[in-house]
Structures are given as C-alpha cells and as structure tokens.
C-alpha cells in the first residue's frame, strides 16, 4: 500500500470507531462529522467534498453490537386502566410478582404507572389521619389518601423508554428518575413491553467466552488492520487486552470500544506501542 492508501485506511477505521462510539453514547455526532470531513479532504485533494443533504456516509450502515431494550424486555405486560381499584391493583402486583404496573387507555397508550410505593403511600396517609383526624394534608396528598382507583394513585406522566434504546440509556433513565421499571412504548406511546432493573442486569450474566468473541470481532471490524495484533481474553466479565498497536490513540480507542460492550465489567489493558526504531 502507498502512504496515501495507509492514511486513508487509518482514517476509515477512525471513522468507524467514531461512529461506533456515537452509537453507544461515548461520542457525539460532531465526532463522526469531523471524521467524515477528514476523509473527504483526503479523497478530494485536501478540499471538503460536497455531500447532498440527507446523504449518510457509508459508515452509517455499520450495525453496532449493543443490546437493546427489545432484547431483554417482557412483552406480555400486565397493565391496568385508570378505573382499576386499589384492591385489584394490589392483588395484581402480588400475583405477578412485580413492583409496578403501567396504566393504559383502552388503546394501550401509557398514561401513567402505579407502583407498590403508591399503594403504600395511601396506607401511610390513612395511618396519619387515624392518629390525628385534623392533620393537614396538601391537596394532592389528600387526593392520594382518599384514592380508590389507579387514576388517583398513579405517577403521571410515566417515565418510558423505546424498544431500540440501548441498555445503558435505560439504566441511566431508571437511575436519574429513581424508578425500578420502565414501560416500553412505540412512537405513538402504545405499550409493547416493560423492562426492569433485573432485566438490565442480564447483560452481565453473559459467558466470558461470548464477551471475548464479541470484543475480538468488534476490534477486527473497526480498528485492526491485522486482527492478530490484539489478543482478547475474559474472566468474570473483566476483559484483558494484550498485543501491540500503532499508537496510544489506537490503544485508547480499543479500550473504549471493548468497554462499551454490554456485560463488560472492566478492561485491563496491557497493549503496547512499537519501540522507537522498530
């Protein structure tokens, strides 16, 4: 290969890595744009190439490897309507061993979610009122205390996620909103599934051999001109990378790509760069 071919090959791999990272929340669209711009300049004598509006670069077809909410969600969802009574809701939670139920319209559009905490909150208000009938409640708290149906007890609007969201996005959503379950909805808000914290943790139960195999494929497809340059092994979800890459930037990219794989607990990097004069 000529020097120009080497340069172009390196840039294409950079573009792939940037796009892959953008898919997994480790980079932005701007990072991909910069990579595209640099490749355009190489292929057009140093001048940015004109690109028709809406045209994607070839790298945009790269599928990525992250697992989505649709891969782990429960599809047969037990839901209730806004008219469902307190006792029936409590029975459903206990019978199906769940902590929350989506509240839906007759067309299955999610309007809220009712949880064990909502039902227990009602009991708390009753306990306080029994001890002190004159105890003052804020208006909404009084509505909750006197609630007879899910419409009055539910949290609305519900925090939801989409089936194509990566597991990390769903986990961040749960953490930031302090919820244990997320209804999964289509674009129009129609319920198609539900995902729990336990579902998101399933990724960390993947066998070590499966993790090592996926990491090798990701690195070979995106970063490595020579797939044998990096050896990958895994133990208890911790990935070990050994071998040699051309630069520290490539090493950092390799670590980032492997860290982004669902189920990877940590990455131990023993990669090196060539010694001067090699």
Describe this structure in words.
It is a single chain. With 278 residues, the protein is an alpha+beta fold. The chain has three domains: 1-64; 69-200, CBS-domain; 206-278, Histidine-containing Protein, Chain: A. 43% of the residues lie in helices and 15% in strands. It has a three-stranded mixed sheet. A two-stranded antiparallel ribbon has the order 1-2. A two-stranded antiparallel sheet has the order 3-4. Helix 11 links the parallel strand 6 (238-244) and strand 7. Helix 1 (3-23) packs antiparallel against helix 2. The radius of gyration is 26 Å and the shape is elongated.
Compose a concise summary of this entry:
This protein is α+β, with helices and mostly antiparallel strands.
């Amino acid at each position: 290969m000529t020097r120009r071919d080497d340069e172009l090959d390196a840039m294409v791999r950079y573009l792939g890595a940037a796009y892959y990272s953008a898919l997994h929340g480790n980079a932005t669209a701007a990072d991909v744009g910069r990579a595209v711009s640099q490749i355009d300049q190489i292929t057009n004598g140093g001048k940015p190439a004109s690109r028709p509006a809406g045209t994607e670069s070839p790298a945009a077809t790269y599928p990525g490897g992250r697992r989505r909410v649709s891969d782990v969600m429960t599809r047969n969802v037990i839901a209730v309507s806004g008219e469902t009574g307190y006792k029936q809701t409590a029975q459903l939670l206990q019978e199906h061993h769940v902590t929350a139920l989506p509240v839906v319209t007759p067309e299955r559009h999610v309007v809220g979610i009712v949880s064990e905490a909502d039902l227990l909150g009602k009991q708390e208000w009753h306990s306080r009122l029994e001890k002190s009938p004159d105890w003052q409640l804020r208006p909404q708290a009084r509505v909750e205390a006197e609630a007879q149906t899910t419409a009055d007890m539910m949290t609305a609007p519900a925090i939801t996620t989409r089936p194509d969201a990566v597991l990390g996005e769903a986990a961040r959503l749960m953490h930031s909103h302090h919820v244990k379950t997320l209804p999964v909805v289509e674009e129009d808000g129609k319920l198609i599934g539900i995902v729990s914290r336990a579902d998101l943790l399933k990724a960390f139960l993947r066998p070590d051999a499966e993790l090592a195999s996926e990491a090798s494929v990701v690195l070979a497809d995106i970063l490595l001109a020579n797939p044998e340059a990096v050896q990958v092994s895994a133990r208890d979800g911790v990935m070990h990378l050994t071998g040699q890459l051309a630069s520290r930037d490539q090493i950092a990219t390799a670590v980032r790509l492997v860290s982004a794989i669902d189920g990877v607990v940590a990455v131990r990097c023993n990669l090196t760069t060539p010694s001067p004069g090699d």
